[in-house]
Amino acid sequence: MAWILLLAAGLLEIVWATAMKLSDGFTRPLAASVTIATMIASFALLATAMRHLPLGTAYMIWTGIGAIGAFLVGILWLGESVSLGRLVAAALIVAGIALMKAAPA
């Protein structure tokens, strides 16, 4: 169950990061409200997952899901650039998450 909560927390991190971008510096009330609400929910789910998962593992996977997810949202929906360097960096984050998950706690 902790892994499901952690996954949900990571997905909400993607939502709040995207909403923060769309809030235009918190000048758009709806996007700013979505940012704050999903940020609180993401932190609450992360905190709950951390009751059963090691700090380093939980935090790395949470931030990794958010980083890769925000990277993909930026490319696919916000028109951000794609370069070999950015793709390699994203692949290294995914590799790090996989290794962290595979390593004994």
Task: Give a structural overview.
There is one protein chain. By secondary structure, the protein is an all-alpha fold. It has one domain (2-102). It is built from four helices and no strands. Helix 1 (2-22) packs antiparallel against helix 2 (29-49). The mean pLDDT is 95.
Oligomer: single chain
Overall domain count: 1
Roughly what fraction of the amino acids lie in strands? under 5%
Count of individual helical segments: 4
Number of strands: 0
Kindly provide the radius of gyration, computed on alpha-carbon positions and rounded to a whole number of angstroms: 15 Å
Look at the helices and sheets and give the structural class: mainly alpha
Shape: flat
Helices and strands, in N-to-C order? Answer: HHHH
Helix content: over 70%
Separation of the first and last Cα atoms? 17 Å
Mean of all residue-level pLDDT scores: 95
- Low-confidence residue ranges: none
Task: Give a summary of the structure in a few sentences.
The protein is built from 4 helices and no strands. By secondary structure, it is mainly alpha-helical. It is a multi-pass membrane protein.
Give descriptors for this structure.
Small_drug/metabolite_transptr; flat; transport; membrane; EmrE-like
